[in-house]
Amino acid sequence: GKGNWGTAIMKSWTSARVFGLLGKIGAAYRMGQEAVRMADDSGDIMAKAESYMHFGFDCYLMGLADEAEKYLIQGLDYCRKINFLGTGGFAALVLGMIQHDQGKHELAEMNIEEGMRMSELAQMNHWRNFADIVLTVIRAGMHENDVDTDALRGRIQRNGVRHFNGWLRRFLAGSIMNKSGRYVHEAEAILQ
Questions:
Q1: pLDDT tens profile 32-77
Q2: Residue 177: which residues within 8 A CB-CB, separation 6 or more?
C-alpha cells in the first residue's frame, strides 16, 4: 500500500548494493522485482526512482540488457522529474554502458554525459570520474583512436568507487577487444 514507499527504497538498495555486489544476482533480481512492485503500489515517485534504477542495475547484472535498459530509462525519467541527481547520474551511467554494449554509441555517449553532469551537480565526484573514464573509452572506440592503457589504469586506481573498479576494468577491456583483435594485449594490461 501507500505506506510501503520506505520499504521499497530499502529493498531496492539492498538488492543492488548488497546482494548484487556480493554476486548473489538471483537474490538481487528477486528483491529488486519486489521493490519495484512495492514502489508502484505506493505511488511515491522517489521510491519509483530508486527502485526502477536499482532494479535496472539488477537486470544488468543478470545479463538482461533489454529489461535493464527499460527500467533504467524509467528510473532516470523519475529522477529527472524530482531532480534526484545522484541516483539519476548512476542510472544514466549504467544505461550508457548497456547502450554502448548494444552498439548504440551515440546514445551511450549522450547518457553518460548526462550522468556526468548529474553526478557533478550532486557533488558525487567518484561517479563523475567513473563516467569520464567510460566516456573516454567509448569516444576512442567511436573514432578508432588508440587508448593509453597505462593512463586509464592509473585513473581507475584513483577512482573513488573502489568496489566497482573490477567492473570498470572488464568494461574497458571488453570495449578495447571489440575494436580489433590487435588490442588484446592492451585489454590484458587493463585487467591487471
A1: 999 999 999 999 999 999 999 999 999 998 999 999 999 999 999 9
A2: 183, 184, 187
| Alpha carbon distance 52, 150 (integer Å) | 36
Share of the chain above pLDDT 90, in %: 41
Nearest of 188, 168, 192 to residue 177 by alpha carbon = 188
Instruction: Kindly state the cell numbers that stand for 20.
Output: 548484487
DSSP-assigned letter for residue 8: H
Q: How many residues does the chain have?
A: 192
What is the spatial distance between Cα 168 and Cα 164, in angstroms, rounded to a whole number?
6
Are residues 33 and 71 in contact, defined by beta-carbon separation less than 8 angstroms?
no
Sign of the CA dihedral running 174, 61, 89, 126: negative
Distance in angstroms (rounded) separating the CA atoms of residues 144 and 82: 38
Closest CA to 134 of 104, 186, 94: 94
C-alpha separations of 170 from 167, 174, 175 in Å: 5, 6, 8
d(CA 94, CA 117): 14
Cell of 111: 547518457
Question: What's the Rg (C-alpha) of the chain?
Answer: 17
CB 52 within 8 A of CB 92: no
